[in-house]
Amino acid sequence: MGKELHSVHYLSLGVHHYSNGQSGEHYTGGAINTKDGSFSLDYVELAYYYETIDKAGGPDDWWKVNVRKYLTGWTWESPQHDYYEKWLFEASRKKRLNRYGITTQLTAGYKHDRTYVSPGDNASFRDNMQYTAEAFIPVKCPKVRFFHWDNMSVYLRWDKGYDYYNINYQNRINRLQAGLVTGNF
């Protein structure tokens, strides 16, 4: 007996704010503090979603295509107005591998018209790619429980491109992260 599936299409429009959560001074010694300096950004995102839903078990397949416009002039830290890419075009796919209960997500992003500015330095980076791969692998051992959590999963994430946590996006990364998470994915 096959799965009973239905699909959903929808658009979303959102205004978002991101802060790196650091509280260091923006400038130290006349240069931008890229170690622990505070920075933030705002953006508008228009996205199209397509989901295939398994009526018995939730989302089975999920696609997202979005365009993001960064509102670089909105930040209250005026020296940051020109730090970030102006546009981001992104495509994502999340797929549940039902046989094992593993959920995977792949994302490719095209960042257009990136700029960073620091004292005495103004450089532009055009047309670069960002890639992300994520996986949630369920822990199927009933004797393994932490803090009374259930729905445990091992989380793996790989990033390639520019480090979005670094002020000015100057550093290239090829990073693998791992962790233990709980929740429905």
> From the helix content, strand content and strand pairing, which structural class follows?
mainly beta
Task: Flag low-confidence runs.
Answer: none
Shape: globular
Major sheet attributes: 8 strands, antiparallel
String of helices and strands: EEEEEEEEEEEE
Rg, Å, rounded: 20 Å
- Intertermini distance: 24 Å
Strand order of the largest sheet: 1-4-5-6-7-10-11-12
List its traits.
185 residues, eight-stranded antiparallel β-sheet, two-stranded antiparallel sheet, 61% strand
Give a concise summary.
With 185 residues, the chain is mainly beta. The chain has strands spanning 5-19, 27-28, 31-32, 40-54, 58-70, 87-97, 102-112, 114-118, 121-125, 128-138, 152-162, 172-182.
